[in-house]
Amino acid sequence: MMQQEPSFRELKDEADIAAALEEGRRLFAGSCDFVFGAQKLGQLPPQTLPEIAFAGRSNVGKSSLINALTGRKTLARASSEPGRTKQLNFFDLAHRLMLVDMPGYGFARAAKSVKEDWQEMMFDYLRGRPCLHRVVLLLDARVEMKVHDLDVMKLLDRAAVSFQVVLTKCDDVKPTALARKQAEVEAEIARHAAAFPYLSLTSSQTGQGIEALRAELAEFALS
Prior knowledge:
Rossmann fold; 7-stranded mixed sheet; alpha/beta; 6 helices
């Protein structure tokens, strides 16, 4: 599960940065096909590729981010009713990386049993999937962190799965408020052993941060 060294965030030479950005662009411009939707752990597809999973509260913009990364409009589709999607959706990216769209969490109207089932299934997936290299954890830049977000970070710590926090919808926040939000989230990240130390600021509408995130995730792809 070791990523290439140095990582994209550590690059200093402009030529190296440009090359990493181009590699990310090429990877995510490749074919990206839906493979399977698993509602139970026994339905998971074979572990043939490195996996990157995307997690976040319902309506955080997860589907929009996946679509922006892959340059598609309808690859990942948001449910019209928060909490309705309860399966792990697998997408084969250029036969080099598997993108996993996890069900949204924190949906207020869901029954307690559904919430408990989500946590149990997700924890079992996280700790029992050796090919899972990183979880991209999305937080909405416009709202405060919720108890559910902190609970998922703790769950990822317990599962010993590396996770990277990404702020979404940053275009909808004024610069001063965004700077405060960034400082708040970075302070929280520092409290978690499994957290990737760098925070990503993104907007699926404007493309902010998308190229850099592609380059970071491309480090896990098969050569």
